[in-house]
Amino acid sequence: MLDVTLGDPQCPPEVQELRDRVADFVRARVVPCEPVLDGGGPDATAALRRLRLEAKAEGLWALPLPRELGGQGLPLRSYAHVAEAEGASDHGPAALGSASLLDALMLWRHGSPHVRERYLTPLVSGDLRACYAMTEPDVPGTDPFSTTARADESAGGGWRVTGRKWFVSGAADADLVTVLARTDGRSPDRDGLSLLLVPAASPGFRVVRELPVLGAAGQAEIELDGVAVDADHLVGERGKALAVAAERLQLGRTLRCLRWLGQAGRAFELMRDRAVTRTRSRGPLGDLQLVQRHLFESLLALRTTRPLVHEAVSRLDAGGDAHVEVGLAKVAAARTLHLVADAAIQVHGAAGLGPDTALPALFRIGRAARILDGPDELHITSVARRVLRTDHT
User: Fold this and answer.
1) pLDDT confidence of 142, banded at 50, 70, 90?
2) Gap between the Cα atoms of 84 and 337, Å rounded
3) How many Å apart are CA 331 and CA 2, to the nearest integer?
4) pTM as predicted
5) Positive or negative CA dihedral for 195, 102, 131, 116?
6) Please, which residues have CB within 8 angstroms of residue 347's CB and are 6 or more apart in sequence?
7) Neighbour-count burial of 333, counting CB atoms closer than 10 A to its CB (0-12 exposed, 13-18 middle, 19+ buried)
8) Helix axes 113-125, 101-110, angle to 10 degrees
């Protein structure tokens, strides 16, 4: 089998071994469960619980989470190599316990002592599920200053949160929701936005509806009707939510890029196998020059995108300004997954549209990737403006 990871930055032997173990786990355990996991509901919950127990038994649980929180403390530069293998399935991070990384780091760095003590251990162990609610139905996700959700101080010293959010990943099953709301000022003030932790069991919290993304479950619209939140459930400083959100978004976008690379690599292998094994009256499908072009363009996209993503990882790991690197990586990785999945479907023909391969799901993820975490246009404009202001070449 052609190794599409060739050209990957140097991976230490011990990390390569771990990467291989994770790849085997995803291929043998997670991928066969994808139809059930994609469907959601009680069967998906039971399947995910079983996978998590298996991951823990094999020592693969919570690899990038800090040791202080119960994880294995794999540094970001090392985890970046593993994240591709883990992300080859959209359910890999949840099954292997790394999906909580953003929430855990946010609470560890910016949560009150009570919040850290109460939530961090069950969050890392997988016993507590968290999600992040920022986007609103009538407010573009690219314009957080126009957020209409509000959190007003209550007489008892806590908060009352009111508003509606949508396209909240995992909201239907979440125990804890981080909500962006305005605590001071009015739209479109740049200050005055805060993050609050809302237990999903609170009176006034409601999942309004599921929002399938191109037919797939996992997103939801939620409503908060005067939900009471304790004063110590404020995350970070009052009115300074966007500083915390920016920190989270930089890492989150980079992790998504790594996982999209893993999924693009998976689509590439499916395309290559189809080109080799599918025969016509005149020989293998791979003998056709147009099929060869699909393979070439896809491999080129993979090989040129990977260094951009790892450059973003290096910048973040070093604590430097990574806005340009993350923006380039996000657009490139989203385009690559979209392009490779589309090419693989074309090579498969009608079989690529049906339920017998992962290609419809990979294509759906690739198309959504160009909007998730900010549309391509936002990152293109942001990177261009920074380059025009200063030298980032």
Assistant:
1) confident
2) 12
3) 26
4) 0.92
5) negative
6) 271, 274, 275, 285, 291, 294
7) buried
8) 160
